[in-house]
Amino acid sequence: MKLWGIDLGGTKIECAVLESSDNMNVLIRKRIPTEADKGYEHIISQIKKLVDLVADELGERPQKIGFATPGVLDPATKTMKNCNTVCMNGNPMNKDLEAVLGIPVKLANDANCFALAEALMGAGKDYPDAEVVFGVIMGTGVGGGLVVHGKVIGGQHGIGGEWGHNILEENGEPCYCGKSGCVEKVIAGPALEKYYADNAEKPLKLKEILERHEAGIDPVATATIERLLEYFGRAISTLTNVLDPNLIVIGGGVGNIDLLYTEGYERIKKYIFNDKKITTPIVKPLLGDSAGVFGAALL
């Protein structure tokens, strides 16, 4: 049976169809704009439009579809929550999609889909014995997904893997979630740029901050990168102490910083509950921005 997946983003909706669970050859990929500013009902209609376009091109309809979503379906209320496309929050998206498409659908957070795709199709292929894979997203925000024995673990409240909203810095910056000092408010890209701007004469993008640190010409840039590495070590050590994954894959723009995999890795040893030793592979993803839609298909 062909595997259909849809990645529902704030600006685009992408559909991909894989040949089968045994042969993950990509048969077709197509994108259309989300047009989220037109509201929730319009997003549903855009999804229907995309499914129809792909079905016409492929010559057959899906039997079921997996969706990567920017938030999560609350297991208790069966409505969406934690979506940065805010018009989706509070709506029974699973029910509405099944009604308009006429087939079963399965929804998962986009970070969970990232983790699933990397575990089964991407970086995880180099670690076939990895039973527990954690996918980290470090970009404009911080998120994560947990995959155990090839299955996404959503958890009791649907928030499995949401390490970005654990408190990392006491009395830190306030977060939209209602707490202060969340991981996201410390080591996400905007948080690091804010730290630099608060301590320097002018704001800079993270790329420029990193360049100035590496050139050794800017003490504030160095303090910013040191802050990233130190708190990365603390945050990953906590995650490791709880889950002890066999593999960690880091996606997102901040995850491209090579120092995380050398100096950042060393910082984990200071805090891990294992005699200051860590052997967990921490690697970059292999699937790029395709991970979300492939993970959705694999649901």
UniProtKB/TrEMBL annotation:
Q: Domain of life of the organism in this record?
A: Bacteria
Record field: transmembrane: none
InterPro entries reported in the protein's UniProt record: ATPase_NBD, ROK, ROK_cs
Q: Which family does it belong to?
A: Belongs to the ROK (NagC/XylR) family.
- Write the protein's name: ROK family protein
Species of the source = Flectobacillus roseus
